[in-house]
Design a protein that fits this description.
- By secondary structure, the protein is α+β, with helices and mostly antiparallel strands.
- It has 5 helices and 6 strands.
- The protein starts with 12 loop residues before the first helix and ends with a helix.
Length: 242
């Protein structure tokens, strides 16, 4: 990011010096005038007039230095303003261009649709495979075995051993096993919920301020609150790419 351009507010040294010289000249003239008031006949009219004229001239020079400094400050401020506008335009045309967002949105929507389709295909296959295994009379995925505890015994669940020739299947839900691993339906809804929560938590990258609370409200509420604004933004972004 480009560093901000700060305005200059300090009084220029030449103005400060001119003001000091004017003040010194005026004080010198006033000192001569006071000597005249006190009756000092060593001060001549010419000396007083010269000192007063020097004070007036020094004050005029100080005013000239101040006006020059103001003109230079105005020019510098205009230059600074022009540079700021140029920086803003560069940001707007570069990273502030909405077109990449529209393209990324389309890619994300396509990726989510692909994810939903993949989950649906998986769950449908797992459900049908489970049905076939139950129809084939395969044993249950979980078996209860007797465990002795000395003074008493309990029946505790254990994953039954499974193989390609002796698979195991859950009697009610779409879950089965052909090995030490098991297969079960996951559901597109839970998958998307975990994905959105992961994104909102910043696990997929740094989220903007406030966005970690994305999943604090139902998606329908977010869509209702922001849908019109987002759709208008995407429409404008599509126009930019034309």
């Amino acid at each position: 990011m480009t560093a901000p351009i700060a305005p200059t507010t300090d009084t220029p040294p030449d103005v400060t010096q001119a003001e000091a010289e004017a003040l010194a000249a005026e004080q010198a003239a006033e000192a001569l005038a006071e000597r005249v008031r006190e009756g000092d006949d060593q001060v001549t009219a010419e000396q007083l007039a010269t000192a007063q004229q020097a004070g007036v001239f020094a004050r005029l020079r100080a005013e000239a230095a101040r006006r020059k400094a103001e003109r230079e400050a105005t020019a510098a401020e205009e230059k600074r303003r022009t540079a700021l506008v140029k920086q803003a335009a560069a940001l707007a045309d570069g990273k502030g261009n909405p077109a990449p967002i529209a393209a990324a949105y389309d890619r994300a929507a396509a990726a989510v649709a692909e994810l939903v389709a993949a989950v649906g295909q998986h769950d449908q296959a797992v459900t049908e495979a489970g049905r076939l295994l139950r129809e084939a009379g395969c044993g249950p995925l979980i078996e209860y075995v007797r465990v002795d505890h000395g003074d008493h015994a309990t029946q505790e669940p254990r994953r039954a051993a499974a193989s390609r020739t002796a698979p195991r299947v859950d009697p009610t839900t779409p879950a089965f096993s052909f090995s030490e691993d098991s297969r079960h339906a996951i559901g597109a809804g839970p998958m998307l919920a975990v994905l959105l929560n992961q994104i909102a938590a910043g696990e997929a990258g740094q989220m903007p301020h406030g966005s970690p609370h994305l999943t604090a409200a139902p998606l329908r509420e977010h869509a209702s609150r922001h849908g019109e604004q987002v759709r208008a933004f995407l429409d404008r972004a599509a126009e930019v790419t034309k």
